[in-house]
Amino acid sequence: MTPPSPPPASPTGSDDLKPPPAWHAGRHLLSVTDLGAEGIEEVLRVSDAFVEVASRPIPKVPALRGRTVVTLFAEESTRTRLSFETAAKRLSADVLSFSLASSSVKKGESLRDTVETVAAMGVDAFVVRHSSAGAAAQVARWVDAAVINAGDGWHEHPTQALLDCYTIRQVLAERAGRAVSDVGVKDFVGLRVAIVGDIAHSRVARSGVLALSALGAEVTLVAPGSLVPPSLEGWPVTGVSHDLDAVLPHVDVCYLLRLQTERGAGSFLPSIREYTADYGLTARRAGLLAEGALVMHPGPMNRGVEIADEVADLPRSLVLRQVANGVAVRMAVLFLLLGQVVGGDAAGVVADLGHGPAGDG
Length: 361
Ligand code: CP
Hints:
- The protein folds into 2 domains: 22-156 and 325-354, Rossmann fold (3-Layer(aba) Sandwich), CATH 3.40.50.1370; 158-321, 3-Layer(aba) Sandwich (Rossmann fold), CATH 3.40.50.1370.
- It is 35% helix and 13% strand.
- The strands form 2 sheets. A 5-stranded parallel β-sheet has the order 1-5-4-2-3.
- By secondary structure, the chain is of the alpha/beta class.
- Helix 6 (203-214) links the parallel strand 6 (192-196) and strand 7 (218-222).
- Residues 77-81, 151, 160, 298-300 line the site of phosphoric acid mono(formamide)ester (CP).
- Phosphoric acid mono(formamide)ester binds at residues 77-81, 151, 160, 298-300.
């Protein structure tokens, strides 16, 4: 196992900025609160370098050659799992894809024994998804490897929030005719975001609120009372509304959540049809959005429930751009946790990794 990297001395190499907190020296990303605004900004800045890598004919760098990343998923996933695996491979790490459903857990092995068994094979990072809140934090107590929370129950999904912030920043930069690297934390201040839907069951909502509010955005939750958490302690939101039509004209970003029927969301509603009538982003409702307002969704989408088919495919809908940016953002997270950044600028190190092929598989 390689010891943790020392933190970059300064985000930009200039002395007028304070160095970011060394969240990656803690070796894990379990919650957005591990990062704070400076940590989020650092991930976004390093992601810029990996977006550039993605545009190369061979989008691969040798940064994590010799490292091993395990994706340990105990719950279904398309985007998160594949983008973490793509990210690790583009960093030249070896990737082990581990599904609990087809493992010896089915023969009665405990999660702890399973994790320790995989760790014994020589693993540098575990990417963990589990239906129980706190599962990734528990894995972090059992192993020496870095642990990244890829979604734990209703709790958090920090890399989803990071890729969402990255995508907003990218669009803000394009609209202002600025380089994305010139858009920093201050550009989020006062940004009005509505997070709409099944807040109560959503780890995406919690991580999104924490990240966006840390950057200075004003977040309003919009949902029926039965899908708002009973307590909003620890949710730094500007307000809660039950009237989507009234909120839509005043937001810069409308962030829709999937109705999580597998977590019982349906039983909190009179009917799905009624939910769509009151809280679905229909074509009529999309017409209430201000010109330039963005529509986002973490996926998977329930077309026709929280988002109308035609709205999901509008130019203002960033759904697939969010997915694309997820690879670069997860490369940044893996790089910051596992890469060697000695005495300086992580983004500079990435840029210096060379523009040619990585040289091996
Ligand atoms: N957004 C998200 O986490 O999607 P998956 O469940 O497909 O990973």
